[in-house]
Amino acid sequence: MRLIVTKLSVGLWSAAYIKNAIRSFAPTEHKPFVLGLPTGSTVLDMYAILRTFAQERLRSFQHVITFNMDEYIGLPTDHPQSYHRYMYQNLFSGVHMRPDHIFIPNGQAPDLVAECNRYESSIARVGGIRLLIGGIGRNGHIAFNEPGTAFNSRTHVVDLSASTREANARFFQNNVSRVPPQAITIGIGTILDAKELLFIASGVKKAAAVSHLITHEPTLDWPLTALKLHPHATLLADLEACVLLGGTVKTRLDEAQQADPHAEQWSINLEDL
């Protein structure tokens, strides 16, 4: 696993990475680029920059298929806090995505188990996710996979933890009772099936989760540690998200900063430690 610490905006860095990945792949009608996408405040800048790329014709999304990681159960798609609404407002409407190339779990499906199975089948039908972008929760959740979720889990219904609902209450008038108690989420196994992973951590509130990922072996207590099992996984973090790092990783990071203090980023391969 690779740790990249950047002084740049993580939104700018990740948007440029996505743009270059799509360009290198050279997608066509019969060979689309399949992109896994998150929601949340961490990636708002990333989506804004992707919209700019599309508007300035630096990147076309014509042959890109997207799969979102999760959706609340029970919220109408036009609800201000549904992830359907979030994605159309922050990305899809600004990059002229083809509607048949957009996949988001249906949190209002009458048969939620069937919806989960349908979602997995849709991913398999297009050959799997090539690049999956994700954020990390304060308690280490990835997508909405809470602590204790099996690493081989597939798309499923999840009961959101109290800490996750409290963290998301800011989107629901700071009222935890307004946050839906359940969601559909892709599983950790579904995440690990993607050909490449790029997860993003920004701000001091994510520092404990970053520290656990970097310094601990994979454990169900911290779902994000499953990323260490993937052969092509990267954690992109800003300096604030790394304030709790210690030991060899901190030493290596300090050495890299001292060697090139004007660099915009520093990279560490954790397997080399």
Q: What ranges have pLDDT less than 50 throughout 5 or more consecutive residues?
A: none
Instruction: Give the neighbour order of strands across the main sheet.
Output: 5-3-2-6-9-10-1-11
The amount of beta strand, in percent, is 15-25%
- Number of helical stretches of at least 4 residues: 8
In percent, how helical is the residue content?
A: 25-40%
N-to-C series of helices and strands = EHEHEEHEHEEHEHEHEHE
CATH architecture: 3-Layer(aba) Sandwich
Number of domains: 1
- Span from first to last CA? 11 Å
Sheet with most strands? 8 strands, mixed
Chain oligomer state: single chain
Please give the radius of gyration in angstroms: 18 Å
CATH topology: Rossmann fold
Mean pLDDT: 95
Structural class: alpha/beta
What sort of overall outline do the alpha carbons produce when their principal axes are compared? globular
Count of DSSP strands: 11
CATH class equals Alpha Beta
Describe the protein:
The protein is globular. It is built from eight helices and eleven strands. The strands form two sheets. Strands 5-3-2-6-9-10-1-11 form an eight-stranded mixed beta sheet, with helices on both faces. A three-stranded antiparallel beta sheet has the order 4-8-7, with helices on one face. The relative contact order is 0.17. The protein is α/β, with parallel strands linked by helices and 273 residues long. The longest helix has 16 residues, at 10-25. The chain has a single domain (2-272), classed as Rossmann fold. β9 (196-201), α7 and β10 form a beta-alpha-beta unit. It has helices at residues 10-25, 44-55, 83-95, 112-125, 162-168, 188-193, 207-215, 247-259, and strands spanning 2-6, 33-37, 64-68, 70-72, 102-103, 131-135, 156-159, 182-185, 196-201, 233-238, 265-269.
